Amino acid sequence: MSTNSNAPNTSAMHDVCVIGAGWAGLTAAVDLREAGLDVVVVEKARGPGGRCSTRRQDGFAFDHGAQYFTARSTDFAAKVEEWKRAGLIAAWKPRMTVFGDRPRNAGTPPDQRLVATPSMNAVLKHLAQGLDCRYGWRAANPQREDNGWAIEEFQSPPAIRARHLLVTAPPRQAFDLLAGTTPLAEIAAGVPMRPSWALMLGFEQTLAVDFDAAFDNEGPLGWLARNSSKPGRCGEAWVAHASQEWSERHLESDAQAVTDELLAAFRQRVPAATSQAPGVIKAHRWRYALAAEPLKRACLIDEANGLVLAGDWCAGNRIEGAWSSGRAAAEQILAWYPAET
Ligand SMILES: Cc1cc2nc3c(=O)[nH]c(=O)nc-3n(C[C@H](O)[C@H](O)[C@H](O)COP(=O)(O)OP(=O)(O)OC[C@H]3O[C@@H](n4cnc5c(N)ncnc54)[C@H](O)[C@@H]3O)c2cc1C
Description:
alpha/beta, FAD/NAD(P)-binding domain, six-stranded mixed β-sheet, 18 strands, 31% strand, globular, binds flavin-adenine dinucleotide
């Protein structure tokens, strides 16, 4: 075990390399660092968040991935209370509506819809503080060596070396990284993910609408939310997600065609938007949004290779699943270190 330090360790062997700065990766990295391990986190995006990130454009901010979350387990609820006290999480109480019939399997509405403030990635930014995080670093070609792993930045040496590797990328990306190096790659490949098209709209003037968020069961949209009705936000920013079925059918469609069709659907639901051209309009495709059927395993472990795979697709979808999978991954890696070292 190396001495815990926040300074980047550029040459030596790290204890753990974590691929991915989303909920699973950063939760694990914090636990590992707090236990005294030397951890490096690599993330291909420009900052932390993953599927729980926030897009900013022309003064507007859009939570274009995860919308809100719930805390069902006692452990996660306790953590949420801590973050609430730190001002990182608040309850969101939108005026809700539903278009069309509620699906039979819709479940009961949650007691509380929680959001991070002032943007959905706020908790992750907080967790990343003090960690050695390398952003804009796309891991490629992890290779097993005598004492651990060598992970290359996409076509750009030098590699990062670490005794243990934790991969928190969505399952198809985990497979692409690890195929041929571990039997876990095949398990990951068997977890299908559903896509989601997101439309972000920023308006100069407030829209006269009698709801802040809506489930739409008649498509092509599945969800609409006034982003700025969440605590700590401002401006008239809206996020609309296409339904899963529509997103699947239009997975490879041209972004402009998707934008046009989703804007028309949005205007049907929010007629006040018809008379105002949005100042910002942007479609984003989440190719791997949600696991169709998570594995119901806390994380995947390849003990012989010192490798763990984690993420929402293991432990049960969504933010709480990613968090608990990250925790389980850290626990597993710590178990590989003898107590006295
Ligand atoms: C449209 C949408 C709506 C959602 N709505 C909700 C919701 O309302 N409530 C809820 O609880 N959940 C929601 N979710 C799900 C939630 O966002 C996820 O469950 C959670 O964020 C997953 O976290 P994770 O750490 O497992 O994975 P991710 O957030 O996907 O993190 C993985 C990270 O790995 C990085 N990565 C991948 N490959 C590499 C590589 N080669 N090198 C370096 N980095 C790499 C990625 O860039 C990413 O940052 C939604 C998701 C989407 C997309």
